[in-house]
Amino acid sequence: MTWDQLNKTQHKVVQILTNSINNDRLTHAYVFEGSRGTGKMEVALQLGKSYFCKVRTTAEPCNECADCKRILSRNHPDVHIIEPDGQSIKKQQVELLRTEFSYRGMESKQKFYIIKHAEKMTPSAANSLLKFLEEPEAPTIAVLLTEHLHQMLNTIISRSQILSFSPLSNKEMEMVLVKEGVSPAIGKVLTEITSNLEDARQLCQEDWIVQARSVVLQLTEEIYSRPQQMFFTLQDKWLTHFKGKDELGLGIDLLLLWYRDLLYTQLGETDDLIFTDQLERLNNQALYSSQEKISRQMSAIFDAKRHLSSNVNPQLLMERLMLRLQEG
To answer: Which among 72, 74, 68, 138 is positioned nearest to 110, based on CA atoms?
Structure first.
């Protein structure tokens, strides 16, 4: 990562930090607040590299020196990352950090630490951290990451600079995913079913989302042209891939995206299509559909998603949905 890359998704935060670095005005404590997947950890590590890099001439760290490389590999002796031990961050973890910083510093006088899920500090841990913030034993920068700013101790917030991370737009998230090697077709799907970059990355693991999209495309084709096969595909592929309510919900969301694309195609509004590589199929199905039929099919999908929240048998739910989609 570079500041230029991070600037594309978190412009305001990056501008504040790089200006502070260039003007040698970094503060002693920051709170990075924002939803999961907005890049808080990436920016924190980048700030650490800029803080320690001895060869940089601008805010941008070199990424080649020993300090930069060790921060990237998470083994720099003067950079510590604390995260919850179980359900909370305990007082002992903060006190251990203070002890580590009291005797380490052979290479530099600077210290840097990141606390993930800072809102999960116990009251005693938060009070111990407060003393550390007020009386650091060396030039120190603290970066506290949180998704729930309102759950943090007000006295810590008042002694820190708050930087708010904005949720990524669909276009920004798609751009990040494509740069990480995700295909544009999959990137479009991911930005529609989640607004969280970390969740999107998780769905890419072991090609789960690629296989999910493939199953949905096969099923929608069979509903349209091979209805005698759709229950076999449902049993053999759908129910074996979409396991549990969360995954089944994602599968239903993908079905809804297909029929939404079909409606857009019927209306001649193709600029917002998600399945852009399936235009021929969409055009073909749109020829033999009507807006009223597609609207009824989408209503059936909405009903299925609503019933999913109750204790319903997944196979029975999907079989009923298939029949309604076939009937239109």
So the answer is: 138
123-133 tens-digit pLDDT? 999 999 998 88
| pLDDT of the residue at 136 | 74
Say whether both 157 and 197 belong to one domain.
no
User: Contact at 8 Å (CB) between 121 and 129?
Assistant: yes
Contact in structure between 116 and 40 (CB atoms under 8 Å):
no
For residue 287, the tally of other CB atoms under 10 A from its CB is 9
As for how many domains the chain has, the answer is: 2
Nearest to 115 by CA among 90, 154, 158, 83: 83
Query: 169: Cβ–Cβ under 8 A, 6 or more apart, which residues?
Result: none
Token pair in block for residue 103: 């005797």
Are 137 and 280 within one domain? no
Q: Which of 134, 167, 200 is the last residue of a domain?
A: 167
Sheet holding 79-82, edge to edge: 79-82, 111-115, 140-146, 29-33, 161-164
- Is residue 234 predicted with pLDDT exceeding 80? yes
Pairwise CA distance, residues 304 & 306, whole Å: 5
The verdict on pTM exceeding 0.70 is yes
Strands 140-146 and 29-33: parallel
What's the average model confidence in pLDDT over 246-262? Answer: 96
Q: Confirm if 197 and 173 have CB atoms less than 8 A apart.
A: yes
- One DSSP character per residue, 24-82 reads T---SEEEEE--TTSSHHHHHHHHHHHHH-SS-SSSS--S-SHHHHHHHTT--TTEEEE
